[in-house]
Amino acid sequence: MTGQSTFDIIVIGAGIAGSGVAAELAEQAKVLMLEMESQPGYHTTGRSAAVYSQAYGSEPIRALTRASETFFKSPPEGFCDHPLLSERKAMLIANKDQMTWLEGVYSLLKDEGSVRILSAAEVREMNPLVREDYVAGGLIDTASADIDVHGLHHGYLRQFKDRNGTLVCKAEVTALTRENGIWQVATSAGDFCAPIVVNAAGAWADQLGQMAGAEPIRLKPLRRTALMVAAPEDMDVEDFAMAVDIDEQFYLKPDAGKLLISPANEDWDVPSDVQPDEMDVALCIHRIEQAFDLSVRRVENSWAGLRNFVADKSPVAGYSQVVDRFYWLAGQGGYGIQSAPALSRFAAADVLKRDIPQDILDAGFDPETVSPARLSRPKTQKGTPQVSVEKIGPDLALPDGTPLPFAAATRAEGFIFVSGQLGVTPEFKCIEGIEAQTKLCIAHIKRILNAAGAELTDVTKVTVWLTGYEEFAAFNEAFGEAFEGHLPARSTVISPLVLPDALVEIEAVARDPRN
Questions:
Q1: Considering only Cβ atoms within 10 Å of each terminal Cβ, which end of the chain, N or C, has fewer?
Q2: Domain boundaries in the chain?
Q3: For residue 365, which of 23, 58, 51, 21 has the smallest C-alpha distance?
Q4: Who's near 506: CB < 8 A, 6+ residues apart?
Q5: Which of 170, 207, 199 is nearest to 10 (CA)?
Q6: pLDDT digits (tens, 9 = 90+) for 82-133
Q7: Please, which residues have CB within 8 angstroms of residue 469's CB and are 6 or more apart in sequence?
């Protein structure tokens, strides 16, 4: 295609994000979708091992996933020739050292309704490959399912075509400028223009934003490696549950009679056609053989893909705060497939400035949680950053409903401040032993930091209160194990604590990865 062609909207990127929103927009506008590769979905979408789980991802992702359920179970007529979902239980598994963290994750997800705790025996019943001497328990999402990624993606592409959308491949964007209220998009396949540009360029989204003069969203492309290996001889694994390490150190998923395995790595990389690293392959095999009764003799296939996140691991969907009519649709991370139907509908309505579909709002989705504005610090009229304090997490209350007059954590001036944590269950009961309480305190801190888009490795300083000197040695050992070699600065004080059975309280300060 040569010369300049005019459209209402140009969507850049034809992966699941671009194709989904383009198909929705094409029902009401003249839409062009540009793809730099020779075929849509070559990068992240085409390399995804997607599972539908309402318990997977950040709060905005889980809400969008809930809102996508109806689409997955009953896609529009003509969208696909076969069901998009097939039965597949998915479970998180833990060894004895991870059980405290698993219980903390359960306390966060139990309101989803489809999540329940598993005993070690139940884990092995659902996936007999899990080693008996490895597993101590698990957590299962009974509503999970496999997603036909190819069927979903090609359904959107078919829908886009049926709605008279125009797809141009081998169209790498080389220049992006705005003149007289119109975006001029120069590509290797010709020049195009439209009043609105939707940036669904995946790992390249920040680069495209820079080209347009938009604010950076600080997207992190993170490489993940996956391998396909043979199942044990004479064993039918097709009905086995997918097993994911509670700390995301590995996963194993049956796939057409074989086993899809991964070290669940998230290694920073540059936007590119990423390939599996030999060290990642070796690490994957080592971790899998430790947790599963499986000997990997040959890797039948291996590949890598980029999972693209911003700091809080929620998508970015909204108009730029800096340039006009430039819409961000990026940062879906590893959740872009399961949330695609609802996110595509939301983004299309948002692009066209229409009302957000009520069913998406009813699923608990808050548009502010994906707005690019959340990633920018407020400015004074003189341009000096204001000191703003953001509360992290829901309002706190005692088990009887009595509200607590403080936040679990706050974010301010480039840091995250986590309130003192005790080794207590959701019922506010202390678990027994200094080692167990220490690990649970740190599990609570990790959960709070994760909700803020941070990790334990971002912690810079902790303050510890112990009830007695005799607890120090056991506490110190558990503390070192929990931080896995990343040792922050620390102060330790001997003091009585609020709860009579509490032996330790830990508060933390972490750097804010968004800054």
A1: C
A2: 4-50+149-219+312-374, 89-143+220-307, 390-511
A3: 58
A4: 420, 421, 438, 441, 442, 445, 462, 463, 464, 465
A5: 199
A6: 999 999 999 999 999 899 888 888 887 887 778 999 999 999 999 999 999 9
A7: 494
